[in-house]
Design brief:
The chain is of the alpha+beta class. The chain has four helices and five strands; from the N terminus they run H-H-E-H-E-E-H-E-E. It has two domains: about 5-100, no CATH class; about 105-190, OB fold (Dihydrolipoamide Acetyltransferase, E2P) (Beta Barrel), CATH 2.40.50.
C-alpha cells in the first residue's frame, strides 16, 4: 500500500474516531443520569438544580450495570482512539516536513526530445506506425507527454494538441518546474547546435 493510501486510511480513521470522541464528550457532559433517564422513562425524576453533586465513577452512582458497562467500553474505545491519533501524528509529521522542505516551483528552460511517457525518447519503429502516430496513439491511451533531458525525464503539462506538434523533435521548453513536472509556458524548436 502506498504512503498516500496509508495517509488516507489514517485520516479516515481519525475522522471516525473524532466523531466518536464528540459523541462521548456530549454523553459525558449530559452525565450518566441523563443517559439512564433517557433509557427508562419511569426512572426517578430529574435532579433539582440544587443537587449538582454527581459521583465521578458510574459504579458509585445509581447507574444501571448495563450503562456502567457501556461507559467502560467507551473509555476503552477512547484510549484506543488516542493511540491511533498518536500513530497518525507520528505518520503525518514527517510527511509534512517533507512537503515544507520541497521548494516552490522554479522557472527553468530545458532542451531535449519530446516523447510519449512510454517510450521516453527511445521510440522504436512499431509496425504500421510512424514515430509521430505511435506517440499520438500512446498519448490517446493515457500516456504522458515528456521531455527527455540529459539526466531526467520531465512530464509536460500544457495543451496536448500543441505539445504533440513537437513530438519526436528536439524542443526548447520554458516553464515552472515542480518536482519532475514542467508546467509549460513556452515551447519551440531547439536550435540545431544545442
Amino acid at each position: 500500500m502506498t504512503a498516500s493510501n496509508n495517509l488516507k486510511a489514517l485520516w479516515c480513521r481519525a475522522a471516525e474516531n473524532s466523531f466518536l470522541l464528540l459523541i462521548l464528550c456530549v454523553s459525558l457532559t449530559l452525565g450518566p443520569r441523563a443517559y439512564a433517564q433517557s433509557q427508562s422513562p419511569s426512572a426517578a425524576p430529574p435532579a433539582s438544580a440544587d443537587s449538582t453533586q454527581m459521583s465521578a465513577s458510574p459504579e458509585a452512582s445509581e447507574v444501571p450495570p448495563a450503562v456502567a458497562k457501556e461507559l467502560q467500553e467507551v473509555k476503552a474505545r477512547m484510549a484506543q482512539m488516542e493511540s491511533q491519533l498518536k500513530e497518525l501524528a507520528a505518520f503525518v509529521a514527517p510527511t509534512m516536513a517533507v512537503r515544507s522542505a520541497r521548494s516552490a516551483p522554479t522557472e527553468i528552460t530545458l532542451t531535449g526530445p519530446v516523447s510519449c511517457g512510454h517510450c521516453q525518447g527511445i521510440q522504436p519503429m512499431h509496425k504500421g506506425y510512424t514515430q509521430y502516430t505511435w506517440a499520438l496513439n500512446s498519448v490517446s491511451q493515457g500516456d504522458d507527454i515528456v521531455l527527455v533531458g540529459k539526466d531526467q525525464v520531465y512530464k509536460l503539462q500544457w495543451d496536448n494538441d500543441k505539445l504533440l506538434q513537437f513530438m519526436s523533435a528536439k524542443a526548447r521548453v520554458s516553464g515552472r518546474l515542480d518536482g519532475n513536472t514542467l508546467q509549460v509556458e513556452t515551447i519551440g524548436r531547439a536550435p540545431k547546435d544545442e
